[in-house]
Design a protein that fits this description.
3 domains; single chain; Zot_N; Rossmann fold; 3-stranded antiparallel sheet; transmembrane helix; alpha/beta; P-loop_NTPase; membrane; 8-stranded mixed sheet; about 400 residues
Length: about 400
């Protein structure tokens, strides 16, 4: 597959890709090839674009090649093509060169290409159109200018405006610390001029709680002037408890630890971030409270909150046919509170219908004629419960 990584200079494209390619090689045992500069290069002729050191190149068993020779390599080879805009430049002609055109058949031989450049518009549009799922396009940004944390935005196809504000709204985003051990594998920039800066969002997160507390305290002190002494004492104890307990439990985190604590374990579900672990302790258990099978819609199960309950077809049909026994309270501590207690039923006395005048009849100087007694109502038989006591609802089809 083709994997395109873009990002500005110093964003960590080469650093992170060297780590990923090496990990993939160790996991699968596949050969690795890296592209080299042309022999006519004035500074580093025939040297790898990724600037990996010779001893690491020999240790890893990686092979140096020219990109146009990729078809001559062994099947299942992994290619790391750094600065790929040199080997895949934007063309003015309509027909791509043969070694680029034949990239359409790379999957038949099990090849994987990791292409690195600053921006997707820097490379051949023919190659950009080949980057599709299960391949991806990842754009990397360094958080805080020079902080050791990278932010990834990933798309299934090439995102031409990947650097634009708001482009990540349709991306799969994540953060990742830079692997410091990889710095010894290659020669990066001779001097790093980036300056560390904390993003304004982090400053807002740090300052907002203190501002809210100050506003709350200011308003509270104005309302409760009559009991200032008691309120001040309680507030002092609260602040002391927070400072004493918080100092032990919340040590000063590094920027990487702080950012990682807000990273959801499950993408798009913010409450799965580690920082919320103390607030998300489960109190209930989802169970198949109701299952129904209909010829038109198949067999489906639902939880006690009427949300879909994922279950395979065979299990769904088994529950429909035989039910399911739960040896626990699915609602936890709430089960005893919410359980409906049976109420005694009082014997009903016959109700005498009130006399009423015939419709449209008005009597002058006389009483209202008594209406004939209506037939006594026959009490309906008590309906039997269709679900177990405590269930909120059930599904039925086709009558009783």
């Amino acid at each position: 597959m083709l994997y395109l990584r873009t990002g500005g200079n110093g964003s960590g494209k080469t650093l992170l890709t060297l780590k990923d390619v090496r990990a993939l090689q160790l996991e699968t045992g596949r050969p690795v090839c890296i592209n080299i500069r042309p022999a006519t290069d004035e500074k580093k002729p025939n040297q790898p674009y990724c600037n990996i050191k010779a001893e690491k190149l020999e240790e890893f068993g990686w092979k140096k090649i020219r990109f146009e020779d990729w078809e001559a390599q062994d099947d299942n080879t992994i290619f790391l093509i750094d600065e790929c805009h040199y080997d895949l430049p934007v063309r003015s002609t309509k027909v791509p060169p043969p070694h680029i055109q034949r990239l359409t058949e790379h999957r038949s031989r099990g090849f994987d290409f990791f292409l690195l450049t600053q921006h997707p518009k820097n490379i051949d549009s023919f190659v950009r159109n080949l980057v599709q799922a299960p391949g991806w396009h990842e754009h990397i940004k360094r958080i805080g200018g020079a902080l050791p944390v990278a932010q990834f935005h990933q798309w299934d196809a090439v995102k031409l405006q990947c650097e634009a504000f708001g482009s990540a709204k349709d991306a799969n985003s994540k953060t990742r610390p830079y692997p410091t051990e990889v710095y010894t594998w290659y020669d990066s920039a001779t001097i790093h001029t980036g300056r560390k800066r904390i993003p304004w969002r982090v400053w807002f997160i740090l300052i907002a709680p203190m501002l809210i507390l100050w506003l709350f305290w200011s308003g509270f002190s104005q309302v409760g002037k009559g009991s200032t002494g008691k309120q001040s004492s309680a507030a002092a104890e609260t602040v002391s408890a927070r400072s004493n307990g918080g100092a032990a439990a919340n040590h000063v985190k590094t920027p990487a630890e702080y950012v990682a604590s807000y990273q959801p374990r499950i993408p798009a579900l913010l409450h799965t971030a580690p920082v919320y672990d103390g607030l998300t302790v489960p109190k209930r258990v989802p169970v198949p409270a109701a299952c129904v099978e209909m010829p038109s819609k198949g067999c489906k199960c639902y939880t006690q909150d009427a949300t879909p309950y994922p279950v395979d077809l065979a299990m769904c049909r088994q529950i429909v046919a035989h039910g399911v026994f739960l040896a626990f309270q699915a609602e936890g501590e709430l089960a005893g509170r919410n359980q409906v207690q049976p109420q005694p039923v009082k014997a009903q006395e016959p109700v005498q219908a009130a006399p009423s005048a015939s419709p449209g009849l008005v009597l002058i100087g006389g009483g209202i004629p008594a209406a004939p007694n209506p037939p006594a109502a026959v009490p309906a038989p008590a309906t039997q419960a269709r679900v177990q006591p405590g269930s909120k609802w059930s599904f039925t089809t086709g009558g009783q």
